[in-house]
Write a structure and sequence with these properties.
Blueprint: E1 7-9, E2 15-17, H1 25-31, H2 33-49, H3 55-85, H4 94-97, E3 105-109, H5 116-122, E4 128-132, H6 142-150, E5 158-159, E6 172-178, H7 187-200, E7 201-212, H8 216-222, H9 232-241, E8 244-252, E9 256-263
Parallel strand pairs: 3-4, 3-6, 4-5, 6-7
Antiparallel strand pairs: 1-2, 7-9, 8-9
Helix pairs in contact: 1-3, 1-6, 2-3
Length: 266
């Protein structure tokens, strides 16, 4: 994998810029630097205070510092494993879920779209639309703002809201929501998005939802940060509310889950 934005050779037009590689551990640290800074400060503060405290508080300070260090190292290693080392962005995991390909498909983004380009490269004969739902009032995480500055929306990206996707009814074979839906922090916004995604699917169409889950594995490596993710039951609830049927599920790098739902044939 390359380590930065590269260039490619065009056909008779000289060199043209290639899109940046998908975000890896370095970018994740950059997007979330306040969290890392806070963890380092807690670790340094605990170690600095411990020698000045009585025995029991000193033990607690050292334990807290070690816990902060373990959390930082564990989450950083997990990010490297998922984003730099796994098949996440090569999309090799998708072949078993969509053996016939995605057909005409829609990609949902909430500020950071790093899947539409790999999809376009892997399935060049398909029609693709991208809708970005980014709204600072809804997507409040500072990490998304920082990520968006590095990876702006691709040319041709449409602007939408959870309750209005600018895509025709029953016009897509597949909808992809990759690390997007959890950024809608309010349940009514997630419910509106699922209703809209279902509306755009043709009968028998497929929704591919890719997310970290709030589960034991993610809690073990991300600690309190795992509460930013949604539990599996929330995604099942939203799908069931729109009459979508769960048809497949796969785990990527042991920490990411791809859930596949299908709209019933009419």
């Amino acid at each position: 994998m390359s380590t930065g934005t590269g260039t490619g050779t065009g056909t008779g037009t000289g060199t043209v810029p290639l899109p940046p590689r998908p975000s890896g551990v370095r970018e994740v640290i950059g997007y979330n630097w306040p969290m890392y800074a806070g963890g380092l400060a807690a670790m340094a503060g605990g170690l600095a205070l411990a020698p000045r405290l009585p025995r029991v508080p000193a033990t607690l300070a050292r334990t807290g510092a070690l816990a902060a260090a373990a959390l930082l190292m564990g989450s950083t290693a997990a990010c490297w494993w998922v984003y730099d080392h796994s098949e996440l962005y090569s999309l090799d995991w998708l072949t078993g879920l969509l053996p016939d390909g995605p057909g005409d498909h829609l990609v949902i983004s909430t500020g950071l779209d790093e899947v539409s380009h790999p999809l376009a490269l892997r399935y060049p004969g398909t029609r693709q639309s991208v809708v970005d739902l980014y709204d600072p009032a809804l997507t409040t995480e500072g990490s998304i703002r920082r990520a968006r500055r590095r990876v702006p929306p691709r040319p041709g990206t449409l602007t939408g809201t959870p309750s209005r996707l600018p895509v025709a009814t029953a016009s897509r074979d597949t909808v992809f929501a990759v690390f997007a839906a959890h950024e809608l922090r309010l349940a009514p916004d997630r419910e509106a998005l699922f209703a809209e995604m279902t509306r755009t699917l043709r009968p028998g169409g497929t929704l591919v939802l890719v997310e970290h889950l709030r589960d034991r594995a993610n809690t073990a490596v991300f600690g309190p940060g795992a509460w930013h993710f949604m539990p599996r039951r929330e995604w099942l609830r939203l799908a069931d509310g729109e009459g979508l049927h769960s048809v497949a599920e796969t785990r990527i790098a042991n920490l990411v889950t791809a859930l596949v739902f299908r709209r019933g044939a009419e």
